[in-house]
Structures are given as structure tokens and as C-alpha cells.
Amino acid sequence: MRFRVRVPRRVALGAGALTLLAATTAPGVAMATDKGSSSRSASVKPTVVLVHGAWADSSSWSRVMERLRADGYPVRAIANPLQGLASDTAYVSSYLSTIEGPVVLVGHSYGGAVITNSAASDPDVEALVYIAGFIPAKGETVGDLAAQSSPAVPLVSTAVPDGTDVSIAPDHFREVFAGDVDRTTAADLAAVQRPANTRAVTDASVQEAFRTIPSWSLITRQDHAIAPALQRTMSRRAGAHTEEVDASHAVMISHPATVTHIIEDAARHTR
Q1: Quick one: 270 exposed, middle or buried, by C-beta within 10 A (0-12, 13-18, 19+)?
Q2: pLDDT digits (tens, 9 = 90+) for 38-89
Q3: Which residues form the signal peptide (predicted)?
């Protein structure tokens, strides 16, 4: 198989560029077929970039990706590092700079905070889609917002060289994260969940991309990780087009057709 590597826009050659190029081909970044042409026309669909949140990985988007590809959308599911809002924003911003043409940027849960910040650096992002997502205002932390959501998520902490990583206690994972997913699948998700560094909840948000980029928000009414009332408050503040569904936090797994629908609705408004 042959690969063609394009030098990212707005990135100078040098050590930083080499690091970025390595990141774009690193394991963990799921990719669908490219658009084939960088020219903008009415027939070209935007690239959908999916950003997962804490306690998940890019494979959580698999059922949504399948549907988007069937409908002709180029899709990328990026591996969010989960190391802190500032560094995760920089990573996603760098990744976005490698994509030509219009982008619909989608974030689930903590991924919503990441897209709120990273989209501000890329003029090609034409729509934001929040899937049960955090939508912080400038100066807020995810921890500030999570404190308004109840009940508290039972977490397990692990000391690491760069601070503390946290994950959901496995025996509470289905209850908190995937209540409408079958028990076997939920157990598998709990076993492979990716922990998040506590900087993900303590780094303050510095951008409000939703102020200038049209946004959509899917609110999950059976969510025990981010209270539906908080989702509504954040979505209203952001001026997002909202839809609601009776689903758990793991809505992209339990209701992939609904998630696909709101993403494609946003995509149709980019033309």
C-alpha cells in the first residue's frame, strides 16, 4: 500500500512538522477514504472528524462511521490523548491542519470541550456537533461544569509521572456510562476504557468556537455522566441547534442512527 503525505497547512518544516506528520500516521487514528479532490463544489461533502471523550477510544464511533461512509462522507476518528485540555486541543488542532476542505467537527463528552477550543484555530471547520458533550465557556473548566452534574461519577485514580489518571470504577461503568447497552458490551467497554489525566478537568477553556461556528447538540435524556439539564444549559448558552434522545452517555453505541442524523444535518448546512 502506498501513502502520500501532504505537508500540513500553516505548519513550517522542521522538528515540529516531523512530529506532526508522525502523529497523523500513528496507530489509533481511524481513517476512511479521502475526498479525492481538494476543490470545493456542491457535490463535495465535508470531512467528518470525530473526537471521543474520556473513558472511551476512537472505536466507540465505529457504528456511526459505518453509516456516514455509506452516505458518502469522508470520516476521520482521531485518538484523543486525554492528557489535558490544553495539550489535547493542540493535538487536535494540528490534526485538523492536515485536512483539506470543509470539516464538520464532532465531540463526545469531554471531546466537546476539545472541539470548542481546537476549532478556533481552523477556518475550515464549518460546523460543531456536540454529542452528550461539554460546552465550556471561556475560563471554565470541565471540572467546574461536572460539579453541576449529579450524581458524582465513581472514579479510580492511578498515579502517573505527569499527575493522576482517572477511570470509571468497572462495577459502576454500565450504570454511569452505558445504561442502554447490553451487559456484555458494557463490560467490554469498561475493560478497555482509556483513563484521562486530571488536567482534562482542571485546564481552563480559552476559546469559544461556538460563538462564530454554527453548532448542533444531541442531548441524552438518560445520561448519568452529564446531567441532561446541564447539557441543555450549555447548549442553550452556545446557541446550538438541539435534539434529544432517550439514551445513555454511550449514545453513539446505543443509538448510532440518531447520532449520524444530527451530524449529517450539520453537514448539510455547510454547503
Answers
A1: middle
A2: 344 446 899 999 999 999 999 999 999 999 999 999 999 999 999 999 999 9
A3: 1-32
